[in-house]
What does this fold into?
Amino acid sequence: MPEIEILNPDALGRPLGQYSQITRVRASEYLFIAGQLATAKDGRIVGADDFDAQCRQVFANLGAALASQGAGWRNVVQFTTYLVHSQDIPKLMAFRLREFPAMFPDGAYPPNTLLMVDRLVQEPFLVEVQTIAAL
It folds into this structure.
């Protein structure tokens, strides 16, 4: 079992959302999960114009990827989130406020880097999340 410590040192100040500043990890293995998009198992795009539906599918895909390797949300040490529209930042924050307490019940949210991009692999995609986990 990895030792994962989520930290918010006073020297860095409070995070601006549902994330932490640092993860300290002692582990024997890591998972690097490719950025997940809002696709169903059959490749169909979920929620073409619905940011919240896309977030739900992205995190469902991440949960499935973690579970496939015997891991769960407690193993996540970092997220990188890509958004196409800066106007979706409040929607992302609302999603995380609503969903993260169930995913991370201890309130220790992994660090997250949020990047704005011109587009994702296909036009309908609005959000992509890449994940690193420790085993």
User: Anything to note?
Assistant: The radius of gyration is 15 Å.
